[in-house]
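Schema walkthrough. Field components (list of strings):
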Amino acid sequence: MAAIIELDQVTKRYTSADVLAAMSLSFEAQQFTSLIGQSGCGKTTLLNIIAGLDQPTSGDVRIGGAWAFSASRGIDLPPHKRNIGYVFQSYALWPHMRVIENVAYPLRVRGVGQDERVKAAQDLLDRLEIGDLGQRFPFELSGGQQQRVAIARALVHRPQVLLLDEPLSNLDVQLRGRARAFIARVHKEFKLTTVLVTHDHGEALSISDRVVLLRAGKIEQDGSARDIYEFPATSYAADFVGGANRLAAKIVTTSNSGAVVELADGSRIAVAPDASLQPGASVYLVVRPHRVSFAPDASSASPSAIVASFKTLSTHYRGEDWEIVGDTPVGELHVVADQPPVTESTFVRIAAADCRCLSL
Amino acid sequence: MNSSVATQDRSAFSSFVAAFWRSKALPGWMFAIGLAAFLLLPVAPIVYQAFLSRPLYDPAAALTLGNFARLLSDADFGLALINTALFAGLATLIAIVLGLAFSLLLERVELPFRRTLRLLVITPLFVSPLIMALAWSVLYSPGGYLAMFLRMNFGFGLPNLNSLGGMGVIAGVVQVPVAYLFLATAASNIPDVFERSARASGAGRFQVVWTIVLPLLRPALISCVLLNVMLVVDLLAVPLIIGEPARVLVLSTFLYTKGAISVQMDYGIIAAAAVIMIAIVQALILLQSRFIGDRRKYVTVGARSSAKTLLRTGWVGWIVSGLIAVYIAITLIVPLVFLILRSFTGILTPLLPIADVLTLENYKTILGTEQYVRSITNSILISSVGGATAVAFTFIAAVFAYRSTPGVRTAIEQVAVIPRAIPGLVVGLGFFYGMILLPGGGYLKQTLLILFIAFLIRNFPSGFGAIAPSFIQVGEELDRAARISGARRWRAIIDITLPLTRGALLSCFVLYFVYFLKEYSSAAFLFGPGSEVIGTTMLQLNFSGFLGSLAALACIELVILLPFAAVILGRR
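Field assembly_structure (string):
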């Protein structure tokens, strides 16, 4: 597939810090990509650079094969010439224009005649099932309706790229599921190359073909939603995407078949091999909370699983399951289970297959 | 080695320059620098003249400190300095105490007729201090109606208004609306949660004011004191109309009498006095930042302010409202009524029944004299056409400030308030000198254009302040959404920003109209035959002692201002 957006060595520097550090990234046609990361990681800056609302300090940007920005060539295509659809976090619907005028505006500035553009806007509103809202003003709409109008406005001029900046963060929690499904439907129907920025990993995992995790202006991990969750590349990625227990450990031996690591309490376990790890290196043993199980006693310990005593510190009922925080000789552990342990002091079992051994 | 470091430096520098060029901040920075130069325009010739041995048009002029030496040995100047300090001190004290009381009472206590009282308290904003001083003079001065009436019927008069104390009281009353608005705005920015949490912690109604509201208002109070001192130091009308008969000289009258109406002008000494006036204002600003210290202590971001719950009162409220109403009657309404009466009489005195002295003569004089009529049409021209031009200019400044980079925004916001620190008299004087220096200045001098520029510089901080909040409120995303949709930069501004800030632009126009019409102090140095405005004509009529005509002209100004004041007041 052809790359629609290509970023090459894009750096954005403010007086001292690099918001983006020599980032190279490309987005393929019709692909739905989520950019995730903590606030300040550079994800919105990246989106604005694609849109032309922000200029990189150095690097190149190509959209649809054409130059959008190049520091060395002195190219900077202004935003209105980039043919992009952008849904802002606040939706940015113009309060002095009716819905139909908002949606028809991109056609208006492109010189499309009144009748034609109103018809196009109305058709699109109908397609997005908000055809009856055309004559309303933005303040008369609910959050979910505003979002649909903002999406309609971003689509009406048939852009080659759709950019979404935290589109769900302004909605009530109950509405988010529907809005998310709506965005997925729009993507399926219009087949646009889509880039979504969010800090909510759940949102990203559920909707995207591809997830790019950013951290302090660099790419921490880039892969399919499943890859990111199942095979986090770093302990940061594991923790940010879905939450994870990080147990401090040390490599004892390595071989082709795997590595043996030693935990804080001296217990040892054999994990999957990782060529980069040397004996003596400090690592994290990363395990998802729902992969930890309670055990009645210490008898099930083996080279392929560790069992540790567990003293409950706090118990949280979460509706469909329980989260239990407890103290173990290998460190503090979060456990997600269908039932809380019967006694305050018990044992937990962690299978080696559920652990990933990651450098600090 | 060294050369490679140097090349590296140079390439780092050139890439910085290239990035700067691309960042689109350049036009914004150029505008900010241009704006600063424009607003500082009047100061340069004054500072230059202050250090010259002869008038700046004289080629034999040399650099010297002699002007300051002569100024400081001038007994009049020393006296003026002391009087200015006392005058500004008293006026500021009155303005702050009353302004604070009104802001606490009218903004947070459930008083009968609260809305009406609030509007009346700020009404003096629309009345030129020239008119206020005149109205008070007609009623309360030793020769005024009330003073004479009391002396005739009860054997005692009023304390002499034509004194430093009298000047201080009027100036204080003139400044009350400024102090009130300033403090009320600051108080409304204090989030309600702070007070609620104090109440929840066990503080009573008055304890909350004392322990939470006032301490949080401290920076605003200090800024407000400073602002008032600056405005009073710059006030010419009150010292001229109230102080001059008693020969009480202050800085502003010193500058005016020596610089504008004296036959033999001593350029050097006037410029030196103006420089000292600027220095005093700068020192006050410095003092303010020292006093307030770390502003973060007072930052109340985060907590959102909500509609404040008003304190309920019973009969006490009626008494408080009554007292405020009496204050408004004494300071504003009765004096204005007597001013209007004065304009319809040949002489106004309790010795003669008013019915016997009623006449339209004053209005006939004003409307029958070409020069006076011209000053009215000139004023309206500057206020309307000039006001609209000023709005356009201010809008462009706001676009550069709020649709550019954060650096440019900060720069323009800082630059925009420069004229606050330049007394109006100095603006007039500076242009007066500047026109002498400038080739072709003689032609510009005494035109309406130069008056308009002086008025714009004087009032730019207020105009910018009227537009800026709406730009912040409208937010850049709406504009950016239009850019993404395919609109060019200025197309986006015209389609989105302009309609959304329309209300603020209208307010800004009304503000400029009112302020331009009221302006007199900067015009005092700049007008000439053909470019008179109402303010300068009033100064001349006062100088010649034609009080009846002066009252008539003041009433005409009030009538012109009335609809505009109503627009502003109606919006509140």
